[in-house]
Amino acid sequence: MLELISEHACHGGTQRFYRHASRAIGLPMRFSVFTPPENGAALRPTLFYLAGLTCNEETFPTKAGAQRMAARLGLMLIAPDTSPRGAAIANESAAWDFGVGAGFYLDATETPWRQHYRMDSYLLELRALAVAELKADASRIGVFGHSMGGHGALVHALRRPDLFRSVSAFAPIAAPSHCPWGIKAFTGYLGADQAAWSRYDATALMAASANPFPEGILIDQGLSDKFLAEQLHPERFEQACEQAGQALTLRRHDAYDHGYYFINSFIDDHLQFHRDRLG
Predict the structure, then answer these.
(1) Of 207, 205, 102, 216, whose CA–CA distance to 166 is shortest?
(2) Which of 10, 98, 180, 243 can pair with 15 through a Cys bridge, CB separation 3.0 to 4.6 Å?
């Protein structure tokens, strides 16, 4: 059952924030939904946005400036939280890049994280909820995200192209098995066996694929991003796409950094990219 926390008129549509009891997580979870103006359609094309480290369900709707174009295009936007809250795990808030606010959109297998840190399963639960209760069109759902969320978007789309029809990302952690953020998260959540990491590594998944998204993938990356060299590795994903025969538009932008001013500058392009593919 959905509990409405708040709602706000926005660009002719409505921005809402919800809480619900998640079966996958075993705790209450929050998410946001922007619903565009009614146009008489029974079902809505829908875009999931996955946010980055330290963010929550409020970050995207308050910072990205996406609602204006989403209203024009008739897109519903859904943004989940980035991790469980209130799991009562010792030191789960001790680091900004692991634990609370840093769920990495995977299902943990290591104790004590495996009981509640099940963001992979949660995204499937939230997708089903959106179809059942929010009028999302199950045949027209895309996913995008930023940084850790860009990693999550690429991974979920590559693992489930039957469920996510389009995918894009802003400054994604594109090869987490090869960067400090990813190694820390994967070791803590999944254990030391690196063979288990590949199912949550977009570059590894793409390297084992064959043109999974024929209509292309869009990635934007700022060249003044302080995390680019050490943490993001878009060039590894680019090479994997070439190997897989996957069309990739990887746009590199001078002067832009890792934050939401960057996302806000190119959000309209991503929404149009998805709307063109969702039909």
Answers:
(1) 216
(2) 10
Q: Looking at the whole model, is its pTM more than 0.90?
A: yes
232 touches 203 (CB < 8 A) = no
* Tokens 């254990």, located at residue: 191
Give the separation between CA 149 and CA 82, rounded to whole angstroms.
8
Q: Which of 223, 109, 110, 103 is nearest to 155 (CA)?
A: 103
Upper half-sphere CA count for residue 171 (Cβ side, 13 Å): 28
Q: pLDDT 10s per residue in the chain (279 long)?
A: 899 999 999 999 999 999 999 999 999 999 999 999 998 888 999 999 999 999 999 999 999 999 999 999 999 999 999 999 999 999 999 999 999 999 999 999 999 999 999 999 999 999 999 999 999 999 999 999 999 999 999 999 999 999 999 999 999 999 999 999 999 999 999 999 999 999 999 999 999 999 999 999 999 999 999 999 999 999 999 999 999 999 999 999 999 999 999 999 999 999 999 999 999
* CA-closest candidate to residue 238, choices 227, 247, 228: 247
User: What distance in Å separates the CA atoms of residue 134 and residue 122, rounded to the nearest whole number?
Assistant: 16
- List, by residue number, the catalytic residues: 147, 225, 258
229: nearest Cα among 174, 168, 153: 174
